[in-house]
Design a protein that fits this description.
two-stranded antiparallel ribbon, 3% strand, 6 strands, two-stranded parallel sheet, Leucine-rich Repeat Variant
Length: 637
């Protein structure tokens, strides 16, 4: 009790002390209270803001110059960063030359860092700026900054945030749409991180890649893989298109003006000036560890969407694919084809990846259900588009042709055992393409010509080993040359390919092929002929092909009557770029077709020389006259 009483007594004492305190504030007398408005202030001066901006400097709508916008790109506020990107994109369209001279490096450095910005609308605005930069700035001016673009793009691809990974494909699309050389020159650095978008290391101990699932995103795993594979397809296309040509162009020298023929040699200094020269020796070291895993990844992706048909089908029936399966099939098959082309050019030591266990299973699985087609074609033609903005072929003709091409190439390269059923299925598909309207068109004609040139030419023995008759296919190809569905350029290529089969003892005996050879001289009856067609005809004449020379002699009179009005079209680049008289050369080649005729009568010889004397110079006409007179022997000319 005593303790409590003492405590209360102390509290009362403390309160009493407050009342004893006196206020020290001195108030003014009543009625004289006033507020003093005089303050001592010190102005805050920013010297940079006092400098007047040059009237010649490019300014945005809000009178901000490039330096101000660059500083705002790293601002903490997302709206400020977004607005700065929008204004920079507009300024690049109006003042691209002025910006290039002064602030180019600073802008690109800041813009590249925004590829991994946490705010989506800022990343979208960054894509717009990069798109404008690639449109207005020349490629040679951007090349020094490729390292900045590639480094930040790799960071975006490997980010732990799913949204940033997805937007990294939009940054990649900017460089895929505008081929400035970025993809081909930085592919060694980009592709390893690009593959990680759909795969990862199997484990730290085991070598190899395994597919990943897209669990943290709104889009499905199949849709995400389609997006990635479509870009991979375009990357391989750009790399192949930008490969330097190995063959040198033809060099012509006019013997009438100069009696010396100099030997041209590529200068070593020219090779050193090539920007790709320094990387040519180191290329492939990174790919050696990633390319072998691509085919197994393709196989795993395909197995997840491939149709499981337990019912056996005939070789004339197709396997139908739905939306996502057809899109994945399209990109996987095209990427495999481009990968084969790429390995052939730069990584020949990696060809064995196409005969590995997984690659063999992949090819066998594709051939088991070959050929492929799309279900619900009418609906898909309206609403299904690939990420590149192009319609996927509803009949999958291009993809089926690629499967045939890879099958033949691997059989010939690695001596695989061919199955008769597989070859019969391929032959049935090709005959269907040739006999069905609009199956072969401008989108797949190049693949068709490539495959025909190897399956009936270089690798024709594959048919014979499996006892499959390819002559029916050859006759259908010959009939297709008269089709109205192909362009004149494709028709000439097809004629050139067919003419190469003249040395094939298996195909050249075909009655349809011999009839076609005898028909070829009628090309000279057309109002117009190309230099390539003239070379084909001259080559057959030099080889002494009997059906061709017989057809030439049979149609000699109408051909000679048509020669004065015959027009020549030049298509070969070496003729276009040369200084020689191309028209005289082509006329000389046309006349020398008759030089190789043997069984010719004296009236025919007289008529021939009469027409040629007005078509080519006299000295060249005498050469033909001497040769034909020597063969005949008893004509008095």
């Amino acid at each position: 009790m005593g303790k409590n009483h003492r405590h209360k007594k102390n509290l009362k004492a403390d309160k009493a002390k407050v009342h004893l305190k006196q206020s020290k504030t001195k108030f003014l007398p009543k009625g004289l209270n006033e507020t003093k408005t005089v303050f001592k202030i010190k102005p805050i001066v920013l010297p940079q803001q006092l400098v007047e901006k040059s009237t010649d400097a490019p300014l945005s709508k809000r009178n901000l110059d490039v330096k101000d916008l660059c500083s705002r790109l790293s601002h903490y506020n997302e709206n400020v960063r977004y607005t700065a990107c929008e204004e920079l994109a507009k300024m690049f369209k109006q003042f691209s030359e002025e910006i290039m001279k002064s602030n180019m490096s600073e802008i690109i450095l800041k813009i590249c860092s925004l590829m991994t910005d946490m705010v989506k609308k800022v990343r979208i605005a960054t894509v717009k700026v990069i798109t404008v930069i690639l449109e207005v700035i020349p490629s040679e001016k951007l090349e020094p900054f490729f390292k900045y673009f590639s480094t930040n793009m790799c960071c975006a691809m490997t980010s732990i945030h799913q949204d940033i990974q997805e937007d990294s494909l939009k940054f990649l699309d900017c460089f895929l749409a505008k081929d400035c050389g970025f993809i081909s020159k930085t592919s060694e650095k980009l592709l390893p991180d690009f593959f990680r978008l759909i795969s990862k290391l199997r484990s730290e101990k085991n070598i190899g890649q395994v597919l990943t699932l897209n669990l943290g995103s709104k889009m499905t795993t199949s849709t995400w893989r389609i997006n990635v594979l479509s870009r991979l397809n375009l990357i391989f296309e750009l790399i192949l298109n930008n490969q330097p040509a190995k063959e040198q162009e033809c060099i012509y020298s006019n013997a009438e003006e100069c009696n010396t023929f100099p030997i041209y040699k590529v200068s070593f200094c020219e090779a050193l000036n090539n920007p790709d020269w320094s990387n040519s020796y180191n290329s492939g070291s990174i790919f050696d560890s990633y390319l072998p895993d691509l085919i197994p990844i393709f196989y795993e992706i395909w197995m997840e969407v491939s149709p499981q048909n337990n019912i056996k089908k005939t070789i004339y029936e197709s396997t139908y694919l739905k939306d996502e399966a057809a899109a994945i099939f399209n990109y996987i098959v095209n990427s495999t084809y481009l990968l084969w082309k790429y390995v052939q050019q730069k990584h020949a030591h990696l060809k064995d990846i196409f005969v590995s266990k997984e690659a063999t299973m992949f090819l066998n699985n594709l051939l088991a259900s070959f050929p492929y087609d799309r279900s619900d074609k009418n609906l898909q033609l309206k609403r299904v588009k690939s990420n590149t903005g192009k319609h996927i072929d509803p009949n999958c003709v291009k993809e089926n042709l690629i499967i045939c091409y890879i099958y033949f190439v691997l059989n010939a390269t690695f001596k695989r055992n061919s199955a008769k059923v597989e070859l019969e299925s391929i032959a049935a598909f090709l005959n269907k393409c040739l006999q069905t309207k609009n199956y072969i068109n401008k989108t797949n004609i190049e693949h068709f010509l490539d495959f025909i040139s190897i399956c009936l030419g270089e690798y024709c023995s594959v048919w014979k080993k499996s006892n499959v008759d390819a002559r029916k296919l050859l006759e259908n190809v010959i009939n297709f040359t008269h089709s109205t569905e192909i362009t004149e350029t494709s028709r000439i290529k097809m004629i050139s390919i067919l003419a190469d089969f003249v040395d094939n003892p298996y195909l050249s005996k075909s009655s349809g092929y011999q009839a076609w050879l005898s028909f070829l001289p009628k090309l000279l009856l057309k109002p117009k002929i190309t230099d390539i067609e003239i070379e084909i005809l001259l080559l057959l004449a030099r080889k002494g092909n009997v059906p061709f020379l017989t057809g030439l002699q049979t149609n000699m009179i109408p051909i000679l009557e048509n020669l004065p009005s015959l027009e020549y079209s030049v298509q070969k680049k070496c003729y276009i770029d040369s200084n020689i008289d191309v028209l005289s050369t082509l006329k000389w080649q046309t006349a020398f077709l008759f030089y190789y005729m043997k069984d010719i009568t004296c009236p025919e010889l007289y008529n021939l020389l009469k027409h040629l004397s007005s078509f080519i110079p006299k000295n060249e006409c005498n050469i033909i006259k001497e040769q034909l007179n020597r063969c005949k022997g008893n004509c008095n000319l």
